[in-house]
Amino acid sequence: MAFDKTKDYGKEAEMLKVLGHPIRLKIVAGLCTQECNVKHIWECLGLPQATVSQHLALLKNKGIIEGTRDGVEVHYAVVSPFVRRLIEILDAES
């Protein structure tokens, strides 16, 4: 494999930094299997709603997830193909 000095991995590096937290990895892994709202996420993970909301905001800001409004609820899903592939690799290793 040759080195490519023209390849810019800036976006991927930023995503990896955000995914470097175990809670965010758990959230993203769960959202790869099903779209759900913040209440479902914090109930499943046993975390405070504020904590989950902060992690979701970081993931959303990096373009990893998106939220779709359904009435008063927002349902989150992973939209980054790069992150979906990464989670598949991590799940295959465990």
UniProtKB/TrEMBL annotation:
InterPro entries assigned: ArsR-like_HTH, HTH_ArsR_DNA-bd_dom, Metal_resp_trans_reg
Pfam families for this protein: HTH_5
Domain of life: Bacteria
Keywords noted in UniProt: DNA-binding, Transcription, Transcription regulation
Domain HTH arsR-type: from-to ranges: 4-94
NCBIfam families: HTH_metalloreg
PANTHER family assigned: ARSENICAL RESISTANCE OPERON REPRESSOR ARSR-RELATED (PTHR43132)
UniProt protein name: Metalloregulator ArsR/SmtB family transcription factor
